[in-house]
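Summary for the steering committee. One of the milestones for this cycle was to obtain a three-dimensional model of the protein with zinc ion bound, which we needed before selecting residues for the alanine scan. The sequence and ligand used are listed below.
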Amino acid sequence: MDRRIYKVRRIDPVERTDECGVLEGGNGSWRFIPGADAGGGKRLLMIPGLRDVHVHFRDPGNTGAETRQTGALAAVAGGFTCVTTMPNTTPAGDSEEWLREQIEDESLPCRIMPSACITKGRLGREVAKLELLASAGAAAFTDDGAYVANEDAMREAMVRAARLGKVVLQHGVEPVALAGGVMRDCRIARQHGFAIMHPEAETLAIERDIRLCRETGCALHVQHISTAQGVELVRSAQKEGLPVTAEATPHHILLCADDIPCDDANWKMAPPLGTAEDRRAIRDGILDGTIGLFATDHAPHTAEAKEGGFRKAANGIIGLETALAATYQAMVLEEGMALVEWVRCWTVNPARLLGVPLPSAMEDFVLVDESANIVAGTDTFKSKSRNQPYSGMRFAAWPVLTVHGGKAVYER
Ligand code: DOR
Ligand code: ZN
């Protein structure tokens, strides 16, 4: 029999409780005994399985970079038990068949609640069949990877999404203002003469979408917010009472453009890393609740796609396996964020964004070693891709056991 006993500190982010005790079980049946003592050994943090509303599994179309299987293995290795896949695959996720393939894959160790396209083919012109897609299980709508620049299409999509009670997730990078920029103004950009991404590329997009949110009443979610100005726009929209939310990625929270060591595309993503002031504003936005969610934007790419430095390489970094560590480092250790609030940003708030309840606490959880003291390196990664900037960085916290549907789906 596979029976285990752990000494744990259990945080329930719904009830906001925090208690020590013993977790025992295995094979689909677990129980927590508050106050009990399991003797020696490390006390592990017990929290619900994390939820990521923004991942790219390259399935279908680019399975050399990631498959649903390898993506899901990376997810559970990172402590995630539910992820929302983005529809920028080939073909794009604008059909019931595409959704069925994502949802009905029984072989996966975690759950997928996919998003679907806002526009047909993600081409930014004609609105997709949102009603059909919603009934086929689309958790939200997005053209992620591309901003829906056509205002009429976006307005129509928001009117229809609002009727369906669905949120639209917007990739807020306005392409004209982006003007081919590959990074924000920083040392490396000046050294290499790279085209700069100005913060207006984000603020123009967010401003327009907030206006459409006011007009249509549709819930708007700003993906991977990266600028101080963007955070301020979201804050004032929320003060106005508009249904606007935002997510921040582990990399925009932990890192900034001045950390980029050289022309290494492992640091290239869209939107790019911001200035130290942007990072400060993002952390402040998390601390005051303006930004309620963390999301990885896990974006695997083959080694070939990441060749050629910032001028040529594809945008995006993988993030599922370092997300817990990076956000714990930045927010709990460096900012002193209350542990329960940090947990809510990975659990309660992403679930609420999609309008779903959290699964049962004894069937879906992760145990975290808060003094694991691990140096990140790609050799242990389950993701098929290796594109990320964290190698060599030391992290205190790391997931050690992930349970989904009562079963141990990952153990370190
Ligand atoms: O860096 C990024 N990569 N940002 C996105 O929004 C898309 C993603 C991708 O699909 O590679
Ligand atoms: Zn993305």
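Key point for the committee: The longest strand covers residues 17-26.
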